[in-house]
Specification:
Helices cover about 85% and strands about 0% of the residues. By secondary structure, the chain is mainly alpha-helical.
């Protein structure tokens, strides 16, 4: 009887170990490989859009969604999904994905990407705030704004903020 209990417990521990290895090692590595492939595909679609862009971006989205559950804290997964959402003409979905990415890391390119999505939806006032945040990290993000009026507004706000001493600019917000 004791040998049977030991055998069952050993089998349970072995099964738990296999499941843990699959969940915490195999699946994340598999998603990394998958994401690299999808990133290449997305970059090619962004560089040379054609009549297949929407269909391929939809395929990329369906494949990358699995990885969001496997590695939920990996910002690049959300960035890849958001880029493909933009390619299929879903800026609202892209914004939601970028906002999820912001929960894990406050990168300036995420703010700039949200601003670009808002501009594509003609929400210029909302876009300005995101571009200002990105521009405070690095003014290079200001030069990438396509809308000249928005770019000038953002440049003016960032210039004023950067000209103030740190403690004054923080108090004025």
């Amino acid at each position: 009887m004791l040998k049977a209990i030991k055998a069952v417990l050993s089998a349970a521990v072995a099964a738990a170990a296999v499941l843990a290895i699959v969940r915490w090692c195999y699946l994340p590595i598999s998603c990394d490989i998958q994401q690299k492939r999808i990133d290449k595909s997305t970059a090619a679609l962004l560089e040379n859009p054609n009549w297949l862009t929407g269909m391929k971006a939809h395929q990329n989205l369906s494949e990358i969604r699995h990885c969001m559950g496997v590695v939920p804290c990996k910002v690049s997964v959300y960035m890849t999904a958001a880029a493909n959402s933009r390619l299929v003409g879903a800026p609202e979905e892209a914004i939601a994905l970028y906002e999820t990415a912001l929960r894990y890391d406050r990168r300036p390119e995420i703010y700039a990407s949200i601003g670009e999505c808002l501009l594509s939806m003609n929400k210029k006032d909302d876009a300005v705030g995101h571009f200002v945040t990105a521009g405070m990290f690095s003014p290079i993000y200001i030069s990438g704004i396509d809308d000249e009026g928005v770019r000038l507004r953002v440049d003016e706000i960032v210039s004023k903020q950067r000209a103030l001493p740190w403690h004054v600019s923080m108090e004025s917000e």
